[in-house]
Amino acid sequence: MPTPAAPVRDRILDAATRRYYADGIRAVSADRLIAEAGVSKVTFYRHFPTKDDLITAYLEQQVARSEGLLTQKRADLAGDPAGVLRWYADGVGTVTSTPGFRGCPFINAAAELSQPDHPGHRVVMDHRTWLVGQFAELLTELGVDDVDAKAEQLMMLRDGAMVAGYVGRTPEAVAKALTAAGRAVIGC
pTM for this one? Predict the structure, then answer.
């Protein structure tokens, strides 16, 4: 439970992050989030006038975290695209073993927000496009041919690894299988 001293918007967003990920976006009511964040309805709706506004803020926060980690690792391992891809595979394996792991928040959200005009759906799709672009840049650095197709294949492998972790594969097995499959795609 967030501390009352936390900024109100952050308390609401923290409650939404916990509940949306644990229970699903559509299953969580505004009343539940209001109670968990310890705010009034007026305060809640002042910060997030619609549920879609809150869903979008939740997904944007997840995107910022995910993209920030990969951007930082690319800077840390500049000139070592293979090292970045290995780190990414290991990270997918690790995240799938964290307590409470319920799958990829972006895949989960895409399943619930299937309408292309939903603002949350657009956040998910923009993030996926960004991630495929990152894979393409790394593959270009590696000198791989057919970069666009192979970047899409790496994205599909990542999605499959997230699901494999969710259904009980060990983090080591997930990382090992993702690395092996990625190498098969890349041809190294």
Answer: 0.90
Q: Using alpha carbons, select from 106, 107, 87, 73 the residue that is nearest to residue 179.
A: 87
Residue 118 in tokens: 């939903």
pLDDT attached to residue 78:
97
Residue 106's Cβ-count burial label (10 Å; 0-12, 13-18, 19+) is buried
Helix axes 147-166, 105-112, angle to 10 degrees: 90
Q: Are 178 and 157 in contact (CB under 8 A)?
A: yes
Tokens at 55, concatenated: 């869903």
Weakest-pLDDT range from 38-47, 55-64, 95-104, 134-143: 95-104
Q: DSSP of the chain, one letter per residue?
A: ---TTS-HHHHHHHHHHHHHHHH-TTT--HHHHHHHHT--HHHHHHH-SSHHHHHHHHHHHHHHHHHHHHHHHHHHTTT-HHHHHHHHHHHHHHHTTSTT--S-HHHHHHHH---TTSHHHHHHHHHHHHHHHHHHHHHHHHT-SSHHHHHHHHHHHHHHHHHHHHTT--HHHHHHHHHHHHHHHHT-
Amino acid at 158: R
**Domains identified in the chain and CATH numbers:** 1-49 (1.10.10), 52-186 (1.10.357.10)
